[in-house]
Amino acid sequence: MERRQFLLRTAAGAALAASTELVPAQEAKPVGTIGETVTEADVLVVGGGTAGTVAAIQAARAGARTVLIERSGQLGGTMTTGGVSFPGLFHAWGQQIIAGIGWELVTESVTLDAGTLPDFTQKPDRHWKHQVQVNPYLYAILAEEACLKAGVDLLYYEFPLAAAATDAGWSVECVGPGTRRRVVCKQLVDCTGGADVVGLLGFERQREDETQPGSLLFRFDTPLRIGREQPQAVYVHGADSSSSVTRTQANLAGRKTLLAKLRQPPAAGKKTPRLVNLQPEAAFRESYRILGETVITHEDYTSGRRFEDAVCNAFYPVDLHTKTGVRPKPLSEGTVPTVPLRALVPKGSRNLLVAGRCVSSDRLANSGLRVQAPCMAMGQAAGAVAALAAKQGTTPLAVPLAEIHQLLREHGAVVPAV
To answer: Under a CB-based contact definition with an 8 Å cutoff, are residues 331 and 317 in contact?
Structure first.
């Protein structure tokens, strides 16, 4: 059976004619037994969301023994579990400014789903017209396939409980249902969204008292507007992904609001809508950000500052959501922001990187940096740097920038001219 037919039949829920072989990851000891499993790695990526998936694939493709820990049961994070399945922006001002592994996964998802890409040669009157519609279920399994093909050791349903520095890197204690594990690694990449591991290690993080609202995405059987392809959303004000408690509160609040919406009497001549899809958890826009060796400011972002250690591009309007909604502020013609390596390195740390929305930045700059295409680009950069640092027995900031750029280009990334 051809691969396309296999994936489409699987996605449709058809029975498989052949048996499926289960290939277990490194087995962990059940909780309560004496001792624990020790897993060795060159690179440990924590968080298999938008950035972490790409970081792990890049590190493994570069030859590093890579372990990816993800607290849920699938990859993709906000784009799959959260349902925000329209990533962007990969193009700016008539040219592609973000490519590489993330773009590879996105375009394969579109192709296999018989979808179409936007016409990137046309200047859009609204930025979202250059965002790509992706089947989130297909993206999750393609991302998983890419990880396994690259040799990534996937560990679902586990999360770090404690971590300590060693002479050669890190020792990270992980737990999951029925498992205990210690991962000994040379380089650690935090892609948790809120820099959870960075906080666990005691490095400084920053955030405001207020957070942008999250979104709980859903679909009715009849769209609110004819031709509407995007899911509908309930704003969850005060949504905070910092802990299990605040995540629970956000999910409860979103579902309560949606239920009240369903119980409202329909307008005259209209039928009560039927709920046909609801994402399992809210999508979060904002949490902790690291205090890095460099902080990307709003001025840096909107001016398109070319940092001397830039490792990737970013592109999106300044997009701060509030209780009254959002009014995106487009960047000036020709402006393409960059992300420096030092913004991915927690201040004063060694053998530690982040990627994704917890990048070191002020709040306004982060409102543009936090979206999926820049997060994918940051993930690929962090994966490349971690792999090189592990191979060279050094720390990320000691890796020559030219070698980082060369490795990224070899794997299809667009590298900023610095």
So the answer is: yes
Based on its alpha-carbon atoms, the radius of gyration of the chain, rounded to whole angstroms, reads 21
pLDDT reported for residue 326: 80
Q: What are phi and psi of 51, to 5 degrees?
A: -80, -45
Q: What is the number of residues in the chain?
A: 418
* 11-28 residue pLDDT tens: 444 333 444 454 444 555
| Average pLDDT over every residue of 90-96 | 96
Task: Give the number of other CB atoms < 10 A from CB of residue 372.
Answer: 30
Contact between residue 147 and residue 45 where contact means Cβ atoms under 8 Å apart:
no
* Global pTM exceeds 0.85: yes
| pLDDT computed for residue 223 by the predictor | 58
Q: Which helix (H) or strand (E) holds 58?
A: helix 50-61
Tokens representing residue 328 in the block: 């995106």
Burial of 212 (0-12, 13-18, 19+ CB in 10 A): buried
Distance of CA 79 to the CA centre of its chain: 8
Q: Mention the CATH class of domain 30-209+287-322+332-410.
A: alpha beta
Q: Are 75 and 136 in contact (CB under 8 A)?
A: no
Domain ranges for the chain: 30-209+287-322+332-410, 214-278
Q: What amino acid is encoded at 398 in this protein?
A: A
Are the C-beta atoms of residues 40 and 65 closer than 8 Å to each other? yes
SS3 call for 34: coil
Read out DSSP for 40-91? EEEEEEE--SHHHHHHHHHHHHTT--EEEEESSSSS-GGGTTS--------E
Neighbouring C-alpha atoms within 13 Å toward the C-beta of 236 = 28
176 has which bridge partners? Answer: 179
Sequential DSSP letters for 171-232: EEEEEETTEEEEEEEEEEEE-SSS-HHHHHTT--EE--SS---EEEEEEESS-SSTT--SPE
